[in-house]
# Entry
Amino acid sequence: MPRHLMNPLDFTVEETEELLDLAADIEKNPDKYSEVCRGRRLATLFYEPSTRTRLSFEAAMMNLGGKVLGFSSAASSSASKGESVSDTVRVVGCYADIIAMRHPKEGAPYVASLHSKVPVINAGDGGHQHPTQTLADLYTIRTLNGNIRDLTIGLCGDLKFGRTVHSLIEALVRYPGIRFVLISPQELRIPDYIRNDVLEKNNVPYKEMEKIEDAMPDLDILYMTRIQKERFFNEEEYLRMKGYYILTEDMMRLAREHMMVLHPLPRVNEISVDVDQDPRAMYFQQVQNAVYVREALILTLLEIM
# Structure
């Protein structure tokens, strides 16, 4: 049976570190890996819009010498005719060696994995999980910090629907000395299952607050997220929340010299473009790191390395 990636916890800490080591070697020695997937195909099945994740997977496979096929919206697939996810994955498994799937319904990639004869990667399912973004986040943190331990991490914005936030918390609680500051309006607080079953169950220290300025002086990492229009039931509620947090140059003056700013992107208006010039702004480096990590993941799941 093939191995799949649905959740960052599908890999042990040791396996995660091995994957990050492989990503580091790919970054350092790209030519060494430029032909290792020749003759292999990646299918990108994206049932909702994506720029970074889909193109990052495609770039990763092409960097490894492989080829890519797939679709970028449900409307351009047989889903528009009523085909089920399970049937789609059975069909695509006849064309491709590995599949990356994004779907607006939570659990859809997991359903696909139950029926697939090739590895399936969850590239984001609703407001649930985004494990490959989490691996890219971990790689970025480890690369810039030297390790993943003894850090105070501020998570700001949409903590209710933010799948990147949920995945990152679940992954980070396995490392020693991690503390969280959860910054959000009351309406977008972290879900109870994350608070109770992940943070409190693992005795991980955390604080919840609404003002970003109050958190800044204590943070080693500030992880910004956008307010996600597509997760709201009505336009009025989204517009009310949209401008709740905007990180500015003035706010950055409150932060430690070594604090890094991360963001899974896309950015709307929650980080002022003036912050881009700050050497602590690492969100575009995250984008590059994600390619290395996805290359390492493809090689791991295909059992090439």
Observations:
- Residues 106 and 214 are 34 Å apart (CA to CA).
- The chain has a mean pLDDT of 90.
- The beta strands are 41-46, 67-71, 98-103, 120-125, 151-156, 178-183, 206-209, 221-224, 260-262.
